[in-house]
Amino acid sequence: MPEKDKIEARKENSEEIEVESKKERPMLKTWSWFLIIIIVICLGIWSYFIFIEKEATKKYVGPIEKVTFGSSTTHKIGAVFVAKDKDYFEEEGIDLEIKQFGSGKASFLAMLKGESVDISAVADTPIVFSSFNREDFQILAGMYTSYDDKVIARKDKGINSIADLQGKKVGLTKGTNAQFVLDLLLNYKGILSSKVEVVDIKPMDLVTALANGDVDAISAWEPIPFEAEQVLQDKAIKFINDGYYRKIFYFALKKDFVKNHPETLKRFLRAIYKANTFLKEYEDESQAIVAEALNLGKEAVRRGWKEGEFTIFLDQALIVSLEDQARWAMRNKVTDATDIPNYIDFIYPDALYSVQPEAVTIIR
Asked: pLDDT for 230-255, tens place per residue?
């Protein structure tokens, strides 16, 4: 090939390479920006979780504030007992006094009456009943979820199925989740609640009433069903809340306490956050702490423990659950109310959002 042709060929080849290079540059530039964006997002997520961890564990420096907590005899309050035992409240500048009540309902009503309870542990139903006639309280967070409400009946009374409860006496504490769950179990089998005679009994007296034959069955939450089975032995038959209803235990408080102690509530939830982390990692030790605090057998605590989850949250399902119970109450004439309250107004999300923002998923 003549030298001139060789030069032209090299020139054409060089031009082709340059054209291809120019085509590739925008693509390389695009990929470079894409990688930069990915890196920035990853750094942002990493920084966020570092911030949350620091917020949840940062050391409090300030005056000690006394807070009175209304509890009931149930493992569901486990995070509170663990936080107190491990001095997490003290680390957050809170001197927590725990007052024991027979039920979450009793604790909640004492708080509403101003009987020296600042924060109450209570399940859905008492909140719903009170929401029909007052608006001076709020939910700080959900703290525990479970499906542990059960009906325990006596087989020697001819009860072998839910249908056999018709015409029988069922003991429960009215105005609590036990009443709601009994109706759910009956309705699921197509049985009207009016076909059952409900006897209002205090939680601590339910097992005795069942054992003495004053009632044929009881509807209750753990550890009461466990205790009833232990007493009746092979005479007992159990009907479970088989996923029909997710019970939520809440931290509830008056609006004036929210207004006057917003920073205290953040520190309270930080202590609970620490306790939840501990009890998930050290389950046996946590169960022992709760059993001792409540004077319960370890087996009773262990059984209930397996049926629920300790976590602080405010999710949309919480609102739906409260609305469902409000409809049930109105349909069954448990209340004279005709309108479902706006439960968004009963939620105080600021404290939890400050401590664990990803746990707040309510649509406002």
From this structure: 999 999 999 987 777 888 999 999 99
Confidence check: pLDDT of 148 > 90: no
Is residue 100 within 8 Å of residue 110, measured between CB atoms?
A: no
Q: CA-CA-CA-CA torsion for 65, 265, 81, 124, nearest 10 degrees?
A: 140
* Integer CA distances (angstroms), 205 to 162, 172, 212, in order: 23, 10, 11
In degrees rounded to 5, what are phi and psi of residue 158? Answer: 80, 20
Q: What is the mean pLDDT of residues 159-164?
A: 95
Task: Report strand pairing: 137-146 vs 119-123.
Answer: unpaired
Rounded to two decimals, the pTM is: 0.79
Nearest to 219 by CA among 235, 234, 240: 240
Which of 127 and 40 is assigned the larger pLDDT? 127
The phi, psi pair for 82, rounded to 5°, reads: -65, -45
Selection from 265, 254, 260 nearest residue 134 by Cα: 254
Which pLDDT value is given to residue 5? 54
